[in-house]
Design goal:
The protein is of the alpha+beta class and 369 residues long. It is built from six helices and 23 strands. Strand 22 and strand 23 form a beta hairpin. The mean pLDDT is 94.
Length: 369
């Protein structure tokens, strides 16, 4: 096998494909990246059996072939090659892959290509198309709210719901909930499924926020889901289990209503959070009154921190405590210049929304100060 390709294109593809390389591989082959050079295309594959990724880039092939190299250092060597063009030659014994560029070279041990479990498209019953920028936005505004501990697997993913021409994505760890919705360009049958958060994070890393006119085809069944776009194919197992009815926890109204600058509020929360990190639950107090939000946190071992932000407040004065990171997280994904907050009392969940936008809501429960 002998082929060459451009460094930047290979680096970008590897950055995506390596997300599917098994971290704790049951066999060495699962820690590898499969490569197949043929004609004007280089195909890269990786799988951990839960997620599989295929990426294709342009290449110049002199001798076609396929091989598998360990993904552990391969990406780093490629990224640090000195020249734009990289040449790959597999030796006659097919045990080493010679990689050279601009006077630099490395030989990597290879594995038998036929032993690699090739990524294949599973049988699927349903499909829909969605704009790249729409799907990326839905993921970005929800995936941060999933549970980190997998005590209940269904909370470690995002639930997708399709009703006609509307798609909604929701994530929760039972202490907070993020719900984002948008329109599809066509009408589809009603369906719902739960996608692992890691799959969505990997996908989002590949989606360009500027590709307004690009579309992704999503195929899914009861157990599997695939994403197809450009020269990329990704497959993932779905999470089994029923996502709970989340609409019950969304407050309909509030006795205290607040409108505040997103950036000013974010900066203040992140500043006080430097102190709240020293507490057990990142506990931070928020006092809403007199067109001001007073944000404070106290650590018995470190000291006190506080900052005030101007805001438009309406209704009853209220002091309530939240996990500061739960508040900062949503402020990092909201693009609007201002944000609305609805609150009732110090024991009830608060709702964060965007003015004149019914497609997004974030709900967070308070903590005891």
């Amino acid at each position: 096998m002998k082929f060459s390709c451009y460094k930047d294109e290979l680096t970008d593809a590897l950055q995506f494909v390596t997300r599917a390389v098994a971290v704790k591989a049951m066999t060495p082959i699962l820690a590898g990246i499969y490569m197949k050079a043929e004609g004007s295309t280089l195909e890269l594959q990786a799988t951990n059996f839960s997620t599989g990724i295929i990426a294709r880039i342009p290449a110049t092939t002199e001798i076609p072939g396929e091989t598998v190299v360990s993904g552990k250092r391969f990406q780093e060597f490629i990224r640090n090659m000195p020249d734009d063009n990289i040449t790959f030659i597999e030796d006659d014994s097919k045990t080493k892959l010679q990689i050279s560029s601009g006077g630099a070279g490395v030989e990597l041990l290879t594995m038998v290509a036929s032993d690699f479990p090739r990524v294949k498209a599973p049988d699927t019953d349903n499909s829909f198309k969605i704009r790249t920028i729409t799907l990326r936005d839905l993921i970005r505004k929800t995936v941060f709210a999933v549970a980190k501990e997998e005590t209940r697997p269904v909370f470690s993913g995002c639930a997708f719901e399709i009703h006609g021409d509307k798609i909604s994505v929701v994530a929760t760890n039972t202490h907070r909930l993020a719900l984002a919705s948008d329109k599809l360009t066509e009408t589809y049958g009603d369906s719902n499924f739960v996608v692992p958060a890691e799959t969505l994070r990997s996908l989002m890393s590949r989606l360009d926020p500027k590709e307004v006119d690009n579309y992704i085809t999503v195929n899914y069944s009861a157990r599997y889901l695939t994403f197809s776009f450009d020269n990329v194919f990704m497959t993932s197992r779905l999470i089994e289990g029923q996502f709970p009815p989340y609409d019950r926890v969304i407050p309909n109204d509030g006795t205290t209503k607040v409108n505040v600058s997103t950036s000013d509020f974010k900066n203040a929360v992140e500043f006080v959070a430097l102190m709240s990190k020293e507490t057990e639950y990142n506990t931070t107090k928020f006092k809403f009154a007199d067109n001001t939000i007073d944000i404070t946190s106290n650590s018995p071992d470190i000291g006190d921190a506080g900052k005030s932000v101007e805001a438009q407040t309406e209704g009853e004065e209220l002091e309530i405590a939240f996990n500061a990171e739960y508040i900062a997280d949503v402020l990092r994904v909201i693009d609007a210049p201002r944000i609305n907050i609805r609150l009732n009392d110090k024991f009830s969940p608060a709702a964060f929304t965007v003015p004149d936008d019914e497609n997004y809501i974030y709900v967070v429960t308070p903590v005891r100060a």
